[in-house]
Structures are given as C-alpha cells and as structure tokens.
Amino acid sequence: MGAEEFAVRLPRGGMTLRGKRTGDPEGAPVLCLHGWLDNCASFDALADRLPETDLLAIDLPGHGFSDPITSATCQYADYVAAVLELAHTLGWQRFRLIGHSLGGALASLIAGTHPGAVERLVLIDAIGPLPARPEDSVAALAGYLTEYLKGHRSPVYRTRAQAVKARVKLADILLSTAEVLVERDLREVEGGYTWRHDPRLKKSLPRGFTEEQVLAFLSAITAPSLLVRAERTALREDFYPRRFETVPGLRVVTLPGGHHLHVENPDQVAGVIRDFLGFSPGW
C-alpha cells in the first residue's frame, strides 16, 4: 500500500497534525518522529521497508504541513504532549516508537513518562534531549523573547535549488537528503520560495531539562530499546556514554552514514530495525 496523507485534530492541543500513513492498517502500530527542521518525508525510505506495520510518520508541530505549537514557546514538553494526544486520539494504547534526532529526544521522554504505552523504542542517532545548564537559562530565555517580540520572516529564495543548498548548509547534510526534506517544507510566495516551518524553530530556546533530569527519564524506560548510531555521529558530547548505560538493556548498533543515516543508508538501518521489531529479514 502506498503512502496516504493523514490529518488528526488534537482538541486539547488546539492544532492539527499531518503526515503520511503507510503499510498494513491491520499491522503493528508504529509512530515515527523526525528531527529538527525535518518532516515526515525523512522516513519515506524506512516506511517502504516496513510494509507489515501500520506506520505513521508525522510532521511534528510547526514542521511540514502540521500546525505550530499554540503556546508562545516551543518546549520539549509541548511536543511530548502533542504526540501522546495523537496516540490517545487514534486509540493507540500501545505502539512502537521510532525517533530521529529531535524526534529521538522526544521519543526518549515519551518512553520514560509513559512506559506502558511504548512497546518497543528505536532511537536513530539520538538519546534524550540536549541538557539545560542553569547558568545559561536567563540569557537563553531573554534572547528568545527578544527575538520573539521582534517577529521573524523566513528568507525568500529565487529558486528551489537555492533553498536546497541553504538546507544543506544549515545542517551539513547530503544534497540528496536535503532534496527529500525540502519537498514538504517549501511554499511558493511572491519572488520565489520560502520555508513552511514555524519561524520560531530557528530561534534559540532555553533547554528544558538538566542532565540529571534527562537521566531520570532515561532510567524510567521499560520498553526494549535500540539505538542506531551513525559512524559520523552527532552524539559526541561527554554526557552520552552515561546515557547509554542508563537506559535499561539498551542495544547499540553503529552503521555507516551521517546523522541522517536512515535516509542515506536505509537498507542497513531498516535491516536492524526489522530484526529488533521482530519481522523477517526479507521485504
């Protein structure tokens, strides 16, 4: 079955989440959460390789075609609440959760706060959110609010190719990866193209949790968990090894590729995920 666009209204959150649904409607429910400034298209290749599942890859709030967060700030807890309300609205009491980058940080928090809801957890080059440092909090919040009150307009690019090159430069990703992602993040305006995502995502927000708090969330995870780490990983900070040890029974697999390895190397990534989720090797 090909990908179908879906939209779900969240009455409590006051927003509509959109994305793509693929696979078997009777299959195991799988929810995919993408990274910062990405969208659900980052999971297209994986979705093709997991046909037995009822796979929902969503545009997180403020990304792709989904509505933005309704609060003035975009905190981790806002996204976690939206994802959990989505699962509740769909009637998914238990589901398998796959998260990349920002989506992996959110998936870690979801699995820690609602362990009974997550049957299996897959993290792609991510584990927990970036930690807050108390000494940075005042300056970070002040800076965000200053920029927020000024307002912000996304840049306009004369051609789609210019936008693709800007996306490559922003996150140091492959040109082919950027081309996949911008399809869902560009809209035509007078003079060319501009981004569809919430402009607030480009502002520096104060981080929500200290490292000690992040470790508390990770230690509360009960679902069997897999971390698929890239050879050119983004997980370089000194705090990551302790995080790996904190998730009970975490399985870590390192595969060729950069931070978006599920887009660059979908065959190998899908292979280890299929094995972890209990599907046969062939597809």
What does this structure look like?
This protein is α/β, with parallel strands linked by helices. Helix content is 36%, strand content 21%. It has helices spanning 44-48, 76-90, 102-113, 134-150, 160-171, 175-182, 211-219, 240-246, 261-264, 266-277; strands spanning 4-10, 15-23, 29-33, 54-58, 95-100, 118-124, 156-157, 186-189, 192-195, 225-230, 251-255.
List keywords for this structure.
single chain; 283 residues; Rossmann fold; eight-stranded mixed sheet; three-stranded antiparallel sheet; 10 helices
CATH class: Alpha Beta
Strand order of the biggest β-sheet? 1-2-4-3-5-6-10-11
Which architecture name does CATH use?
3-Layer(aba) Sandwich
> CATH fold name, please?
Rossmann fold
The structural class is alpha/beta
Shape, principal axes of CA atoms: globular
The biggest sheet amounts to: 8 strands, mixed
Return the average pLDDT rounded to an integer: 93
The CATH superfamily bears the name Alpha/Beta hydrolase fold, catalytic domain
Radius of gyration: 18 Å
Q: Would you identify the regions where 5 or more consecutive residues have pLDDT less than 50?
A: none
As a percent range, the share of helical residues equals 25-40%
Terminal CA distance: 13 Å
Organism: Prauserella marina
Keywords: Hydrolase
InterPro entries: AB_hydrolase_1, AB_hydrolase_fold, AB_hydrolase_sf
Family: Belongs to the AB hydrolase superfamily.
